[in-house]
């Protein structure tokens, strides 16, 4: 995508007039430019501060030479350069087309056959690069341009010859972590062509699944996964050729990986067997590939990626003629068994004590949990894999909350501290605040929509805290028991709170700016003890769980509906809005129920239609039991509303370990 030049961008580099911005990386900026004769080129302008570092110009000159040696068929051909300019620059042929990163991020994973064809093109490019005695060292989705005639590998900013000195390598790990090889992480100065093959395997996995096989939310997590864990290839058919190729490339031992020419031969044979020339009307997974963005997006997708796959509605190679001379009909696919959506698809295990709280990240990719074992754990929500464990709390962790941008995790508990953690690096950012009152446990947390205020339930008060400094700008008092739950309205103007008020039993609404109490809510005059509150997306309804789930009309303060199931008390609830924002789905879970013949009620999550009050389905945690030996605690919806997480805590350590159950809704 070409962006307009900013006021601070140059308008001319060498003889080339700059027309727009193509991107920016660690070494500099890339511009779309026009030569004096009207030819479009891509100009990379190196940052001045880099050009002033020792021996950088020597390194840049080597990049220019590297690209020239490989040639233009596999890379963007160099047309001009000036390593001696005040800000060195390089002009290359402009290749129209999206990067692989842009295509997959915007339109979804590619079909398996398209990935095989992509892999053959990239393997051919790597073979040419390696034949010149070079190693690219930074092959990643953002460095692959999908040109109409095949993929091009770009950005030789860190390419080097094996005999090159260590001046650009020692003491630095160059490249993109998620696509590095194990040896590149451990000894970056001693890489071989096999490191590019490993990166190619990761790139193909990304193209097929939309995620890297070693993705994690922190750099330490990525490095550990690359060097010590098998790749995550969920989404690839284990019996398919693509899975075999990717696994072959991702061998931890460089000596066990194929060479680029060997890989090219294997991919070419496999791709030829799976494809035929593009028909006039593309079929199969083309709709999945190009999405619903119309002809404009289609024009940017290379034709070789639009060839049909071997799905049931496409051709998958030449058909032998039948007795009448017509094409042989493809056999009808066998129906796949229907998945039982009431059973969890993943179980996250690792805590050694009861799990007391959980939360989804704003993008839904990770789940954070806090436990009786004094730890906070971060999990991959798609793969069910533990990413990292945060240690530092000295007592039970009662509350976790992501900042709205997803970069920081805030936690609190019985040790009376508010802590924060850097989600990307995995580093502890320290204790933000320590509370000194006798009962000042940190029981619950909630962020305002703009991320500028963190509501902290401390003892029987709510503190409105600056999340950057930990300082309170208001203390909301009036509850007589420990805080159970807090929530901001969608517009951020109102805060709701509930506590274990045996005598009061009310829900309190506060002006989130001033901290002034504006209203109290009770269910038909009854004082009930509620454990959590949350707002509907349109802000007109408050959802409170306790003795059933009650829906309060905030305009009148009255209960409009009470949702009940077999639980006497609903410990936790979650809300996923529908498209209108006025309705949606409510999930509720509770503890034990003394009912004759009941074998799963203590381990279930009930889903209700908020508009009608009808039960939609019941999700069951763990295998059926004849005794109530575990119960569902906290529940949460993922941000897409299609994933439900529920904490399953056993009542006896001999009956299993605490787990987070993940259900996928249809």
List low-pLDDT spans: 157-175, 276-300, 306-338, 592-600, 624-628
How would you characterize the largest beta sheet? 6 strands, antiparallel
Number of strands: 36
The backbone outline, from C-alpha atoms, is elongated
Q: Roughly what is the average pLDDT, rounded to an integer?
A: 80
Gross CATH architecture of one domain: Orthogonal Bundle
What's the total helix number?
Answer: 11
By CATH, the topology of one domain is Transferase(Phosphotransferase), domain 1
Report helical residue fraction: 10-25%
Through-space gap between termini? 35 Å
- Give the CATH class of one domain: Mainly Alpha
β-strand percent reads 25-35%
Instruction: Label the structural class.
Output: alpha+beta
Measured on Cα atoms, how large is the radius of gyration? 29 Å
Largest sheet strand order: 1-2-3-4-6-5
Task: Name the CATH homologous superfamily of one domain.
Answer: Transferase(Phosphotransferase) domain 1
Lay out the secondary structure:
Blueprint: E1 12-13, E2 16-24, E3 28-34, E4 40-46, H1 48-51, H2 56-70, E5 78-82, E6 89-93, H3 100-107, H4 112-131, E7 144-147, E8 150-153, H5 182-186, H6 193-209, H7 219-228, H8 241-249, H9 260-274, H10 286-290, H11 295-298, E9 346-349, E10 355-360, E11 366-371, E12 375-380, E13 386-391, E14 397-402, E15 408-413, E16 417-422, E17 428-434, E18 442-447, E19 454-458, E20 461-465, E21 472-476, E22 483-488, E23 494-499, E24 507-511, E25 517-521, E26 532-535, E27 541-546, E28 548-553, E29 559-563, E30 570-577, E31 584-590, E32 604-609, E33 615-620, E34 630-637, E35 643-650, E36 659-664
Antiparallel strand pairs: 1-2, 2-3, 3-4, 4-6, 5-6, 7-8, 9-36, 10-11, 11-12, 12-13, 14-15, 15-16, 16-17, 18-19, 19-20, 20-21, 22-23, 23-24, 24-25, 26-27, 27-28, 28-29, 30-31, 31-32, 32-33, 34-35, 35-36
Helix pairs in contact: 4-6, 4-9, 6-8
């Amino acid at each position: 995508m070409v962006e307009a030049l900013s006021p601070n961008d140059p308008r001319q580099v060498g003889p080339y007039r700059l027309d727009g911005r193509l991107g920016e990386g660690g070494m500099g900026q890339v511009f779309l430019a026009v030569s004096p004769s009207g030819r479009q080129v891509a100009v990379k302008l190196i940052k001045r501060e880099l050009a002033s570092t020792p021996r950088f110009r020597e390194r840049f000159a080597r990049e220019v030479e590297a690209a020239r040696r490989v040639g233009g068929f596999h890379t963007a051909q160099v047309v001009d350069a000036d390593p001696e300019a005040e800000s060195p620059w390089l002009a290359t042929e402009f290749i129209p087309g999206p990067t692989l990163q842009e295509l997959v991020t915007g339109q979804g994973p590619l079909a398996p056959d398209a990935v095989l064809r992509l892999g053959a093109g990239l393997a051919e490019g790597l073979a040419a690069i390696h034949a010149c005695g070079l190693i690219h060292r930074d092959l990643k989705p953002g460095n692959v341009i999908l040109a109409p005639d095949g993929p091009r590998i770009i950005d030789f900013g860190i390419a080097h010859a094996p005999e090159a000195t260590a001046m650009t390598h020692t003491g630095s790990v160059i490249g993109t972590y998620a696509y590095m090889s194990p040896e590149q992480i451990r000894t970056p100065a001693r890489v071989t062509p096999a490191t590019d093959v490993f990166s190619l395997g990761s790139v193909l996995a990304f193209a097929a699944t939309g995620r890297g096989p070693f993705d994690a939310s922190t750099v330490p997590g990525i490095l550990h996964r690359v060097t010590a864990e098998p790749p995550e290839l969920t989404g690839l058919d284990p019996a398919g050729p693509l899975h075999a190729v990717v696994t072959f490339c991702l061998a931890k031992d460089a000596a066990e990986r194929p060479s680029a020419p060997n890989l090219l031969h294997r991919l070419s044979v496999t791709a030829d067997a799976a494809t035929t020339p593009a028909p006039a009307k593309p079929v199969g997974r083309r709709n999945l590939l190009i999405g619903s963005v119309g002809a404009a997006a289609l024009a940017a997708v290379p034709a070789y990626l639009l060839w049909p796959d071997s799905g049931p509605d496409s051709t998958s190679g030449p058909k032998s003629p039948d007795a009448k001379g017509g094409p042989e009909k493809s056999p009808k696919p066998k129906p796949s068994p229907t998945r039982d959506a009431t059973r969890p698809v993943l179980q996250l295990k690792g805590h050694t004590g009861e799990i007391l709280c959980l939360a989804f990240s704003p993008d839904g990719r990770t789940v954070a949990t806090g436990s009786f074992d004094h730890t906070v754990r971060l999990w991959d929500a798609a793969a069910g894999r533990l990413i990292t464990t945060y240690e530092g709390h000295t007592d039970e962790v009662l509350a976790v909350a992501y900042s709205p941008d997803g970069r920081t995790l805030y936690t609190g508990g019985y040790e009376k501290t508010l802590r924060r953690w850097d989600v990307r690096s995995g580093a502890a950012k320290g204790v933000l605040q320590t509370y000194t009152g006798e009962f000042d446990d940190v029981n619950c947390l909630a962020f305002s929509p703009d991320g500028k205020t963190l509501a902290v339930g401390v003892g029987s008060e709510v503190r409105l805290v600056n999340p950057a400094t930990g300082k309170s700008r208001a203390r909301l008092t009036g509850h007589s028991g420990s805080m159970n739950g807090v929530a901001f309205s969608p517009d951020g103007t109102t805060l709701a709170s509930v506590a274990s008020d045996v005598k009061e039993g009310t829900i309190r609404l506060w002006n989130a700016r001033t901290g002034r109490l504006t209203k109290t809510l009770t269910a038909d005059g009854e004082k009930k003890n509620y454990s959590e509150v949350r707002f509907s997306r349109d802000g007109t309804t408050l959802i409170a769980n306790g003795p059933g789930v009650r829906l309060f009309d905030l305009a009148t303060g009255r209960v409009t509906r009470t949702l009940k199931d077999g639980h006497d008390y609903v410990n936790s609830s979650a809300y996923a809005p529908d498209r209108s924002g006025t309705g949606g789905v409510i999930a509720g879970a509770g503890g034990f129920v003394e009912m004759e013949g009941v074998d799963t009620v203590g381990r279930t999550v009930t889903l209700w239609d908020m508009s009608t009050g009808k039960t939609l389905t019941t999700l069951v945690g763990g295998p059926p039991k004849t005794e109530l030996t575990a119960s569902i605690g906290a529940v949460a919806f993922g941000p897409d509303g299609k994933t439900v997480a529920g904490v399953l805590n056993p009542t006896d350590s001999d009956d299993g370990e605490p787990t987070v159950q993940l259900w996928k809704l249809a």
